[in-house]
Amino acid sequence: MRRVFGVKKEKEPPPSINDATDRINKRGETVDEKIKRLDAELSKYKEQLKKMRPGPAQEAVKARAMRVLKQKRMYEGQRDMLYNQTFNLDQVAFAAEGIKDAQQTMTALKSANKELKGMMKTVKIQDIDSMQDEMMDLMDVSNEIQESLGRSYSVPDDIDEEELMGELDALEADMGMETESDGVPSYLQADKESDFDAELNLPSAPSGHAVAPNRNNTQAEDELGLPAVPRASLRG
Q1: Closest Cα to residue 35, out of 85, 82, 89, 96?
Q2: Domains held by the chain: number
Q3: Is this model's pTM higher than 0.70 or not?
Q4: What is the pLDDT of residues 15-28, one digit of tens each?
Q5: DSSP bridge partners of 221
Q6: What are the phi and psi torsion angles at 18 (to 5°)?
Q7: Of 235, 206, 218, which Cα lies nearest the Cα of 227?
Q8: Residue 97 falls within a domain, yes or no?
Q9: Is residue 153 part of a domain?
Q10: Span 172-231, pLDDT tens digits
Q11: CB 94 within 8 A of CB 75
Q12: Which one, of 27, 12, 14, 22, lies nearest residue 89 by Cα?
């Protein structure tokens, strides 16, 4: 059967944009090399024409130079055409890459959308609200427990707060008076000397008559039989 109908040939895949671009670039490189050789040949003809005198030989060199110049113009036109083709292929490749990027972006967005829908099914607003309410209730119960545990056992419940405030005000007033008395200088306090005498607990000397001298000692004595100390020396 294969001999009668033959075998179907498999079609080659069409060339890609990169393959076409590489092939055109290689052709362009070949054309550039030819143009360089023609430029080198033209430079030689120019040097010859500068040294030659007008005549048939000079005309022959000019004819060769014109032929080389025509070939150069032809190759330059081919090179420009290849450059334009390469530019067009680059534009198409850029557009194709943009479309591929868009396709990948759409695929990623679809996958993310599907994943988000699956996640949203497991998370509901009602569940979150109920959980928040439950947490608030638990916090209130915890505060009540802390207050109950922190209650003092030694303070009676029948204490009047107004009475406590009155005692506190009186205590503050007493503290203020003590502060003011401490701030008064010693020379302005009239009872300072009498307080000093009271602390010493010494009897005062009689003011109407002098103390009788002792037989064995000419110095005056007090009621206890001790030598009397002058009052002026105590104040000094």
Answers
A1: 82
A2: 1
A3: no
A4: 788 888 888 888 88
A5: 227
A6: -65, -40
A7: 218
A8: yes
A9: no
A10: 787 777 665 555 555 455 454 555 555 555 555 555 444 444 444 445 555 556 665 555
A11: no
A12: 22
